[in-house]
């Protein structure tokens, strides 16, 4: 469970987050939506203790600010928006980085770590690439690999920052389906910043809409994906349509 | 979608999804394993392989074994060359026979004359061992610095250890002419080197709210410039000692003795062990400080430990050898170009390769214009730079 209580982050005099309070239940997928600069990334970074913040963040009931980095990394896996991908690192070496929280300071990966990573590579259809360097992988393969590294941490909570921004439509849905399947298999709690509102509505159980560093709306996709609400907070008119199958589709409206 | 994921349990906002057309997404075999029935209890996270059948596949990890073995063979070759080449004409079989004859527990009657053995044991071997230790330290320190500062141009002198050692040595040289204070030189150089890095860290790591690598590196540049200015001023004020100062700065292993070796051995050994133990953590740092932090690795702590270890070893090395340049950059990058960029390979192979490289450079420095010596720093740059450029051009892929 993720609980946020009045989380505030200041960059100089500007508040990037002004008292965000929200809760994500165990096993839930919460989508973090909002315009550029609304504070989505900052909120995830605050939970990861990567920016100084005010207020309280708790994971599974324990306050995060008193946790060691190692304990935090065993509890939550984080996929940043633009992960660093060392071009000459091999796929096997990269996914094994995810085992770091379970390896001592001067320790080394053991057979168990290898087995976990090999299993994940198979699961993500990357076994074939295990010996190759990251340079040789396509965007979709890299995205799956980054996800694999996060899953290798075996943390019950997954924080994703725009996990699919670089992917084409098909790969985007693929990646989210994998997250969803693994979430269901392992009971993961997911909090993910998402750009694509239609996909956010399709995958998340609940949406948290941030605007100017504060929670503007929170609720089920059909509650939050409201034309008036979105138009106000995205600074542009949008229309929310319902497909013949009942899916919510968020589309922009031309100004002219 | 529900067709590809039979294990889904209905949840909030699910009704829209449940009616999605099955062809909304191409079926991906990866997300359709034989799934267990839906698990309603979600509090217990399980490791992925525990639900999937244990994977028979092996993870094809980069192995350091072969590169390390190759480097060792090169090192042994360099050592044999180092002990058998010199002004006194002693053949390789004589050297080997002498070494065998002096090994404990082996009763082999050596044919090597006592005089030849003295040359080997008192002059050549200490030089070779010292060159090996200094080379291993500079190359290993360079590799580790490139890792913690994530900068391909980092070398062990980055934070001012060379400038500090240079200043310490210069003070002793200009103050000791005509006295026996000269033997204080290694200690002054060692203290100067360590002092400079401590100063750099105090200035760089405490500037601003967070100690970034950039602020530490910039502090190193400033400290090095300041100490070099003082050192230059001192040497200009004491013109008669100019030759001595220059000779030390350009580096020399020509007068190495066993006492030099034992003097620096504890520091070099400790430093090498600590750096070697960091090879996995240096790989974690390759994804950047923040992501390393998210993976549970405290980057600033790793950096401090690596800097402390490398400084101890480098300061000890330069205190007896002078400021031999270029080894810390060229050797690790050569290793990266020839084998793999993982620090599990780069760190050990750089240490062994650096030892071999400096032993060979010393052979050239001592013998090319014998009896005159060429400063070893000149040799490392003169031989190393073209070789490195050749490698860089022959490989099309980038390194870092």
Structural account:
- The complex is a heterodimer of chains A (256) and B (400).
- By secondary structure, chain A is an alpha/beta fold.
- Chain A has nine helices and twelve strands.
- In chain A, the strands form three sheets. Chain A has a six-stranded mixed beta sheet, sandwiched between helices. A four-stranded antiparallel beta sheet of chain A has the order 2-1-4-5, covered by helices on one side. Chain A has a two-stranded antiparallel ribbon with strand order 11-12.
- The termini of chain A are far apart.
- Chain B has helices at 15-18, 48-51, 65-84, 92-101, 114-148, 161-175, 185-204, 213-237, 242-250, 258-277, 279-285, 289-294, 299-321, 327-338, 343-367, 376-394.
- Chain B is globular, with a radius of gyration of 28 Å.
- The relative contact order of chain B is 0.14.
- In chain B, α6 (161-175) runs parallel beside α13.
- The longest helix of chain B has 35 residues, at 114-148.
- Classes of the chains: A alpha/beta (256), B mainly alpha (400).
- The interface between A and B is large, with 83 and 73 residues.
Helical percentage of chain B:
55-70%
Number of strands of chain B: 0
| SS strand fraction of chain A | 25-35%
Give the overall shape of chain B, derived from the CA principal axes: globular
The end-to-end span of chain A amounts to 45 Å
Number of helices of chain A: 9
How many independent structural domains of chain B? 1
Radius of gyration of chain B: 28 Å
- Give the overall average pLDDT of chain B: 81
CATH topology of chain A: Rossmann fold
| Helical/strand content category of chain B | mainly alpha
Query: What is the typical, i.e. mean, pLDDT of chain A?
Result: 89
In short:
Chain A has 256 residues and is an alpha/beta fold. Chain A is 33% helix and 27% strand. Chain A has a six-stranded mixed sheet with strand order 6-7-8-3-9-10, with helices on both faces. In chain A, strands 2-1-4-5 form a four-stranded antiparallel sheet, covered by helices on one side.
């Amino acid at each position: 469970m993720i609980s946020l209580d009045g989380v505030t982050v200041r960059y100089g005099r500007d508040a990037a987050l002004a008292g965000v309070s929200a809760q994500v239940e165990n096993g839930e997928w919460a989508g973090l939506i909002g315009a550029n600069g609304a504070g989505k990334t900052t909120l995830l970074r605050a939970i990861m203790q990567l920016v100084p913040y005010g207020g309280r963040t708790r994971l599974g009931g324990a306050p995060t600010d008193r946790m060691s980095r190692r304990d935090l990394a065993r509890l939550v896996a984080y996929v940043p928006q633009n992960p660093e991908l060392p071009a000459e690192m091999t796929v096997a070496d990269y996914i094994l980085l995810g085992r770091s929280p379970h390896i001592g300071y001067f320790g080394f990966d053991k057979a168990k770590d290898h087995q976990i990573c090999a299993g994940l590579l198979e699961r993500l259809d990357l076994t074939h690439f295990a010996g190759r360097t990251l340079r040789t992988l396509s965007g979709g393969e890299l995205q799956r690999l980054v996800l694999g590294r996060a899953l290798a941490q075996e943390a019950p909570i997954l924080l994703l920052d725009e996990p699919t921004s670089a992917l084409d439509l098909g790969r985007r849905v693929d990646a989210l389906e994998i997250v969803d399947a693994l979430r269901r298999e392992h009971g993961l709690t997911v909090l993910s910043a998402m750009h694509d509102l239609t996909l956010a509505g399709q995958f998340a159980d609940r949406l948290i809409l941030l605007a100017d560093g504060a929670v503007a709306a929170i609720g089920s996709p059909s509650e939050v994906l409201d034309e008036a609400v979105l138009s106000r907070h995205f600074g542009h008119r949008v229309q929310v349509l319902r497909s013949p199958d009942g899916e919510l589709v968020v589309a922009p409206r031309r100004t002219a | 979608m529900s067709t590809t994921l039979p294990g889904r349990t209905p949840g909030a906002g699910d009704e829209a999804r449940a009616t999605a057309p099955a062809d909304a997404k191409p079926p991906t075999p990866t997300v359709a394993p034989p799934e267990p029935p839906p698990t309603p209890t979600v509090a217990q996270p399980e490791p992925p392989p525990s639900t999937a059948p244990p994977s028979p596949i092996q993870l094809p990890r980069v192995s350091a074994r072969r590169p390390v073995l190759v480097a060792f063979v090169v090192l042994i070759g360099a050592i044999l060359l180092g002990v058998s080449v010199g002004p006194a004409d002693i053949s390789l079989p004589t050297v080997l026979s002498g070494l065998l004859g002096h090994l404990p527990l082996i009763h082999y009657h050596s044919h090597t004359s006592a005089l030849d053995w003295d040359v080997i044991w008192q002059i050549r071997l200490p030089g070779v061992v010292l060159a090996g230790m200094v080379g291993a330290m500079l190359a290993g320190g360079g590799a580790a610095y490139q890792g913690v500062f994530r900068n391909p141009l980092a070398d062990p002198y980055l934070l001012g250890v060379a400038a500090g050692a240079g200043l310490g040595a210069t003070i002793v040289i200009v103050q000791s002419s005509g006295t026996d204070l000269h033997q204080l030189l290694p200690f002054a150089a060692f203290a100067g080197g360590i002092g400079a890095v401590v100063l750099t860290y105090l200035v760089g790591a405490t500037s601003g709210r967070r100690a970034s690598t950039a602020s530490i590196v910039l502090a190193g540049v400033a400290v090095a410039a300041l100490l070099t200015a003082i050192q230059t001023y001192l040497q200009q004020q004491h013109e008669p000692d100019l030759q001595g100062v220059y000779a030390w700065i350009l580096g020399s292993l020509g007068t190495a003795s066993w006492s030099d070796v034992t003097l620096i051995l504890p520091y070099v050994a400790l430093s090498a062990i600590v750096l070697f133990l960091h090879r996995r953590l240096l790989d974690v740092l390759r994804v950047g400080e923040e992501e390393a932090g998210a993976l549970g690795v405290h980057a600033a702590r790793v950096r401090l430990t690596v800097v402390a270890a490398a400084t101890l070893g480098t300061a000890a090395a330069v205190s007896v050898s002078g400021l031999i340049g270029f080894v810390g950059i060229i050797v690790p990058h050569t290793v990266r170009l020839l084998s793999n960029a993982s620090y599990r390979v780069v760190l050990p192979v750089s240490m062994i390769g650096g030892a071999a490289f400096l032993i060979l450079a010393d052979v050239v420095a001592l013998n090319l214009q014998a009896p005159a010596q060429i400063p070893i720093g000149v040799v490392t740059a003169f031989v190393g730079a073209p070789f490195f450029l050749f490698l860089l051009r022959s490989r099309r892929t980038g390194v870092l």
